[in-house]
Amino acid sequence: MDWHFVFSQALTQAIGPTMLVYALGAIGLNLQFGYTGLLNFGQAAFAAVGAYGLALAVVAFGLPFWWGIIVGLGCAVVLALLMGIPTLRLRADYLAIVTIAAAEIVRRLFRATVWSEHTGGSDGMRGFSDPFFELNPLSEDATWTFAFLSMDSGRLTVDFGLFDLQYSHRDLWVMTIGWALVAFFCIVLALLVHSPWGRVLKGIREDEEAVRSLGKNVFAYKMQALVIGGLIGAVAGFVFALSRANVQPDTFSTDFTFYFYVVLILGGAARIFGPVLGAALFWFLYTIFSQGLSQAITADLISPELINQTQVGPLVFFLLGLGMVLLLIFRPQGILGNKRELMLDVR
Amino acid sequence: MRRAVLLLSAAFAGLLLGLGVNSSATAQDAFGVHGTLENQQDEPVAGVSITVTDAAGTEVATVQSAEDGTWAVPLEAGGDYVVVLDESTLPDGLVVRNGKPELEVTISSDRTVLFPLDTQVAGGAEPGGDEPSSGGDATGETPEGDESSTGADEAENGENLAEIEDEGGATRAVSLLFSGLHFGLMIALAAVGLSMVFGTTGLTNFAHGDLVTFGAVMALLFNLTFGVPVWIAAIAAVLLGAAFGWLQDWGLWARLRRRGTGLVSMMIISIGVALLIRNVTLFFVGGERQRYNEFVGQQPWDFGWLVITPKEVVTGSIALVVCIAVGLALVYTRLGKATRAVADNPSLAESTGIDVNQVVRLVWTIGGALAAMSGVFLGISDGVKFDMGQHLLLMVFAAVVLGGLGTAFGAFVGAMLIGVFVQMSTLVVAPELKYVGALAVLIIIMLTRPQGILGRRERIG
């Protein structure tokens, strides 16, 4: 069994493009759920409208790439308003139900065959990411070696002996932009939550009535948090779509949102670096379990009769679900969080 | 030789799986006839020849259904036409269910012609085991990978009467109404439990849909693995569902309540539980849609104004009786009164001497049993799939919010309305979008009357 490969894969994934998607989505969720206490179960929908806004604008309407980004962000704002206006005045669980329903509506609309000539139905769309990768300064066939870094026709290998990290030049470009965005949003979020505005948000999370009695417009604050968190979710959608160079409706299912929650709670809600740490750890664990199990099966360490390759996925997600439940019961603050801050209640 | 013929015909007759199918209307500007050929998974069926001839017998056009299953024949003048679907061009295993590949239509405006397609599985010894994913084969474009989310819609009603034919809008509407009532009863079975759990504990249980899956899967286990008849398997599944509900409350939720875990944490935990149950199911059952070995592809009763399968009548009636029984029990028995008291005001109920935890345990048990029953019945009509409950859950949410969160009677009323609405909406929208309508209704209700039909205003604040 190839431990070197398993560890290399796990660490590659722990800072790779997919992890950045989850980190960004969870940062948005952190503002909504961690700081404001909004139970948004539809973060996948924000990512979906972001990704599809970009894809549709570029492919179906032939707009330039930057217009696609603006369309995606605009769609996220509209979605946040649509979800927020009916529910933010009600109790928290109403928002949960509406957001989960809205996410499902969005997914079904995108996979509907009625307008599949534009959206591609369940096959999704591609062909919108070229302008993004044209900006890539890294050459496709660069070859050089520097200490433990080596570039072999566009494929970077970072060799640490015990393990190595490998990225294609496309991954590297996505990661450059992705990490820059993560850093940017972490700074923005840190400034926001330490401002008077952010203190009002935390006040809403702790006691909405008390904040209202101070004369604050709770509804407006909640809506602002939902919109900003949704915009960050849409950015996560952009990175997701660009890193895969396609959009597919079924990737934006309810489970996607749930993994954002796992990431957020694992790292620690209401902490600036919680989502980033959580996403890295989530992808490290996920890859090490799934790669480790499939390697073990290939190496006949686990009998294929007990578990076959197609059962690895469900088993790993089962373990993640179990881990999530245990984490919420025994350590709801995650790794970085503060327990007293997260005694949320809706009644 | 004779033996061979027998075997062959047995294999051919096989199982008439109600892998239903349908064809749906899409609005087009052109004047003519059109439609969409789809199998049950909403996957389009491509490459099927359809010929349109006019009243005089002259061929107008022969078209093939496109990659997305659509076909259209533009016509220049109204009148009587014959639309023929060439069955030999259908992918293996698909047949036109009502045996009428030839339809006479009168064209006065643009209209849709529907061919209900059905799957005939050869060698039906192992139902489900070798079920061909006909849609996938036909289109050759469904990657195995996204199977987990493509098939989905258990509520898709394999035997969906909705799609019988669109000759005579009235017949279709009546059939849709009945299929909607049936679907509504299935939602109601699940919704009553969800609503009662919410009423007594305040928890919105996102894992309730997976109790539905649990019931269907348990019945599958008894039916296929232990080989007992479906009706015994159904009873066993309902009992196990009750036990599962009891166990969940005893092992998890009661303890969390005692620890004082916040409701928001509990909601997220319930999502974790849902993920857990779903993946255990996927692990053991696999991602394929499976069917019980009885009551598949039943011959429907045709009353002229209504076409309905006997199993739908039976499961619907049982569901109705059970719902009425639960309602009567809530109103007239001591335990029922205690349950309503707890739902109304837990602290006040406790101070009058009601054992709140006992009541909550009871609600979980009954909720689990009803959800399992709903799962078995849905499994009988549409087959069993690991994510069937997850998709039903959103309909259940729509139903309980429409009826009023926390009220058992509201849940019933809401479920019936949602069920009928979902099915009847296919008269105007494409069937694949029927759930979108229901979920949109959910959001509109939030906007206008958040307490629901039977809820009270104070609950929502």
Automatic annotation (TrEMBL), chain A:
<feature type="transmembrane region" description="Helical">
    <location>
        <begin position="38"/>
        <end position="59"/>
    </location>
</feature>
<dbReference type="GO" id="GO:0005886">
    <property type="term" value="C:plasma membrane"/>
</dbReference>
<dbReference type="Pfam" id="PF02653">
    <property type="entry name" value="BPD_transp_2"/>
</dbReference>
<feature type="transmembrane region" description="Helical">
    <location>
        <begin position="312"/>
        <end position="330"/>
    </location>
</feature>
<dbReference type="GO" id="GO:0015658">
    <property type="term" value="F:branched-chain amino acid transmembrane transporter activity"/>
</dbReference>
<dbReference type="InterPro" id="IPR001851">
    <property type="entry name" value="ABC_transp_permease"/>
</dbReference>
<keyword id="KW-1133">Transmembrane helix</keyword>
<feature type="transmembrane region" description="Helical">
    <location>
        <begin position="223"/>
        <end position="246"/>
    </location>
</feature>
<feature type="transmembrane region" description="Helical">
    <location>
        <begin position="258"/>
        <end position="286"/>
    </location>
</feature>
<feature type="transmembrane region" description="Helical">
    <location>
        <begin position="6"/>
        <end position="31"/>
    </location>
</feature>
<dbReference type="InterPro" id="IPR043428">
    <property type="entry name" value="LivM-like"/>
</dbReference>
<keyword id="KW-1003">Cell membrane</keyword>
<feature type="transmembrane region" description="Helical">
    <location>
        <begin position="172"/>
        <end position="193"/>
    </location>
</feature>
<feature type="transmembrane region" description="Helical">
    <location>
        <begin position="65"/>
        <end position="85"/>
    </location>
</feature>
<protein>
    <recommendedName>
        <fullName>Amino acid/amide ABC transporter membrane protein 2 (HAAT family)</fullName>
    </recommendedName>
</protein>
<keyword id="KW-0812">Transmembrane</keyword>
<keyword id="KW-0472">Membrane</keyword>
